[in-house]
Amino acid sequence: VLRQGALERQAGDEAAALAIFRAAAERHPTAGQPLAEAAASLRALGRPQEAVALVTQALGVAPTDADALF
C-alpha cells in the first residue's frame, strides 16, 4: 500500500498519495510510517500545521520508528 502511495506521489498526485497513506494509517494504527508519509504529503500540499500534527501522532504510536522522524 505504501508503494502505491509513493507511485502516486511520483506521478505528481499528492492528494491521491495522501488518501492512500491515511487509509494505510487507519489499517495499521501502530505503524508510524504511514502517518509520516501522510505528513509529507500534507507538507507538499502546503498544509504544514496538519503535517506537524501527524508527525506528532506518528511519534506517539511508534516512538522508535525512524521513518516517523523524517
Question: What is the element layout, followed by pairings?
Answer:
Layout lengths: L1 H9 L3 H14 L4 H13 L3 H14 L9
Task: Give a structural overview.
- 71% of the residues lie in helices and 0% in strands.
- It has 4 helices and no strands.
- Helix 1 (2-10) runs antiparallel to helix 2 (14-27) and helix 3 packs antiparallel against helix 4.
- The longest helix has 14 residues, at 14-27.
Q: What is the subunit arrangement here? A: single chain
Let me know the number of strands.
Answer: 0
Q: Structural class, from helix and strand content? A: mainly alpha
Mean pLDDT: 91
Q: What is the radius of gyration computed over CA atoms, rounded to a whole number of angstroms?
A: 11 Å
Helix amount: over 70%
Can you tag this structure with a few keywords?
single chain; 70 residues; mainly alpha
Tell me briefly what this model is:
It contains four helices and no strands.
